[in-house]
Design goal:
Elements lengths: L2 E7 L7 H12 L3 E7 L5 H10 L4 E4 L4 H7 L2 E2 L1 H6 L4 E4 L5 E4 L2 H12 L8 E5 L3 H12 L4 E6 L2 H11 L6 E5 L8 E6 L17 E9 L8 H8 L4 E3 L2 H16 L6 H8 L2
Parallel strand pairs: 1-2, 1-3, 4-6, 7-8, 7-10, 8-9, 10-11, 11-12
Antiparallel strand pairs: 3-5, 5-6
Helix pairs in contact: 1-9, 5-6, 5-9
Bound molecules: 2'-monophosphoadenosine-5'-diphosphate (ATR).
The site of 2'-monophosphoadenosine-5'-diphosphate (ATR) has 15 residues, from helix 6.
Length: about 270
């Protein structure tokens, strides 16, 4: 019996998720089918309910529906609750929908496991306070760095996100981009949408410590604008988000199937185009 899964978003045409999950299925021998659904901006909730009513077992949810998926889910994992956004819906045995967010785990695993980044005692800057940043801020804090600063063009949004995360006990601050003057970081993660227009957030040129790393949650065939910024400003490593994409998919696959796929070979496959 083949179980059905899909990714839903708008736009969806260029999603790599079907390729990734099909590769996981081949590798693990799991019997699954994984498609893509162009979500309707007015009827997202109906479409999700229909997918599950027709026998679907799980969905990945992408832009712009992650907040709506969070509201729609019957119960939430801890990470989804912190993010107030859901990228993974899983049908439970009792028919209820569990919502989880695997983006942050994906980022942390790509940094720590695939690239050997050590969070301990590090000062981390997260740029942006939209859906992408909300998804990763909690899991970054769970790695217990020395400090997480969330900086956003609109300061109030970063302050609100930092306030929500304060109970996690690792020091966290929210501020505007202009407040970064004079501050230095070991790792800068870009979760803004600036790269969609080929731009980088307006941050001081010297805010990366010598030997520091940059990570762009976006990826592309060519180095992204933020990866280029990192290389131009002395980053020891400048990584794009392809590894995170595969790692978040692996965590979703694990939630659905209870099996953890090997990611390195899938990252290599996507890198080759
Ligand atoms: P997503 O869900 O992809 O994160 P979003 O919720 O619209 O999308 O958030 C986009 C983020 O990118 C926001 O933090 C936004 O800053 P504002 O909150 O001030 O709008 C940020 N952003 C977009 N374009 C940017 C730019 N050119 N420079 C800096 N930040 C930018």
């Amino acid at each position: 019996m083949t179980d059905r899964y899909a990714v839903i978003g708008n736009p969806i045409e260029h999603s790599q998720s079907p390729r990734i999950h099909q590769a996981f299925a081949r590798q693990t021998g799991e019997q699954i089918e994984y498609g893509k659904i162009l979500g309707d901006l007015d009827r997202f909730e109906e479409e999700v309910r229909k997918f599950f009513a027709e026998g679907g077992k799980g969905l990945n949810v992408t832009v712009p529906f992650k907040e709506r998926a969070w509201r729609l889910a019957d119960s939430h994992g801890e990470r989804a609750r912190l993010a107030q956004a859901v990228n993974t819906l899983a049908l439970q045995a009792d028919g209820r929908l569990l919502g989880e967010n695997t983006d942050g785990v994906g980022l942390v695993r790509d940094l720590a496991v695939n690239h050997g980044f050590v969070f301990e005692r590090k000062r981390i800057l997260l740029l942006g306070a939209g859906g992408a940043s909300r998804g990763v801020a909690g899991p970054l804090l769970e790695e217990r760095p020395a400090l997480l600063v969330i900086a956003n063009r609109t300061a109030a949004k970063a302050e609100a996100l930092a306030d929500r995360l304060r109970p996690l006990e690792t020091p966290v601050e929210g501020c505007g981009l202009e407040a970064l003057a004079g501050k230095r970081f070991d790792l800068i993660v870009n979760g803004t949408a600036a790269g969609l227009k080929g731009e980088v957030p307006d941050i001081p040129g010297d805010c990366l410590l010598p030997g520091g790393w940059v990570y762009d949650m976006m990826y592309g065939k060519e180095p992204t604008a933020f990866v280029r910024w990192g290389l131009e400003h002395g980053a020891a490593r400048a990584l794009d988000g392809l590894g995170m994409l595969v790692e978040q998919a692996a965590e979703s696959f694990f939630i659905w199937r209870g099996v953890r796929p090997r990611t390195a070979e899938v990252i290599r496959m996507l890198r080759q185009g």
